[in-house]
TrEMBL record, chains A, B:
The lineage of its organism: Bacteria, Pseudomonadati, Pseudomonadota, Betaproteobacteria, Burkholderiales. Belongs to the NAD(P)H dehydrogenase (quinone) family. This is Flavodoxin family protein. GO terms for molecular function: NAD(P)H dehydrogenase (quinone) activity. It comes from the Bacteria. GO terms for cellular component: cytosol. Residues 1-207 form the Flavodoxin-like fold domain. It holds the Pfam family Flavodoxin_2. Keywords: Oxidoreductase, Plasmid.
Amino acid sequence: MNILIVHAHPELKSFTSALKSEAVEVLRGLGHQVEISDLYASDFVATASASDFADRTNPEYLVYALEQRNAVARHTLSADIEREIERVKQCDLLILTFPLFWFSMPAILKGWIDRVFVSGVFYGGRRIYDQGGMVGKKALVCTTLGGREHMVTEGGIHGDLKGMLRPLLQGTLGYAGFEVLEPFFAYHVPYVEQSARQKMLEDWKALLLNIDSRATLAMPSLADYDETLAPRAKLVG
Amino acid sequence: MNILIVHAHPELKSFTSALKSEAVEVLRGLGHQVEISDLYASDFVATASASDFADRTNPEYLVYALEQRNAVARHTLSADIEREIERVKQCDLLILTFPLFWFSMPAILKGWIDRVFVSGVFYGGRRIYDQGGMVGKKALVCTTLGGREHMVTEGGIHGDLKGMLRPLLQGTLGYAGFEVLEPFFAYHVPYVEQSARQKMLEDWKALLLNIDSRATLAMPSLADYDETLAPRAKLVG
């Protein structure tokens, strides 16, 4: 497989970075090609803006998704975005490794999505979910957090973490057509002993060694929705 | 009231910007003080990084939240962050106006939260929700999107939009102690006629004129959780 790891942690020696390095080692050991987009190391631009387009269709009024679509067709996207799009296109499996910031991605990773998941390639009109641009590829989210598991479950104080990540898991990765694997969460990281972190690294390694059997998240199927994306009436009985 | 509007849209003439301008006019007309943080106009730095701290406690290993806490105490946060913290501290009502990017905030606004909602001021330890640093202030989210309402409701193709925004509504604003008002959503904006946009502006104006009676979202109360933030057993009968 071709694998792309997109990594977003500001500290090189962090546990999140250790999870990323472990993935590189294990996956290369299995014979896979592994590319890494280390967003902090490359000082990736987080903010989607007019300057992402060398040659705008409408210089008077910015509709970001429309300019994406045109810039893809005319190859006038900024070079950093072009490079990342190519990396995603080449991969069979996309892995995102990041610490949870405010129950979602650090802004630098959100910006990678805002800028790289361009209209016309990743999605467009009804080309979403099982009709999305990335159909045939898998995606895996690996997140570290300070909270304990009981705080981020259904009925816990903050509610279910997978639900909190729905904008990413379903609204972004699933939407673009990726088959989304069950995410990996490392809880309470800054507060646990080294042995507990070692155990989490081993769990992560075991997951990667058995990635083919990792469960996937259910996503909508376009066949169940009409041309306005309203649910089709179901025949009963 | 002192009101802070944090605005994140790359196009000055966008409908989202019109909603922001309408809010400024209506709220000033009511006699309120209104400050605006226009993140695109001020080229706000989105990425939380080591360079946010002039004088690190631990230059060898970055724990962002710990450095936030120390920098607040020593007044060594970068000037843009200090300014935004002061603006939030001064306000009674915080309004966020932004277009939905991938079912959440544009990265520039996520970065405003990552960098400005500092540990030790907005939250800390068990100082969250009704014990959070921003208790006594209100927050209102105003979001524009391309999708139609039926696509982002319970049972719709993408699921409930308020649920998608839970990382912001509960996990950020509620977590920090804000009383979170029912959000305002403007649907299908790029595709509707001018008259429909005018109607949405009027709905927004009516909301603002009656902001005191806007419903609020339920949030956890710390009294219901023990010292590990696990739910306390409830006495029944």
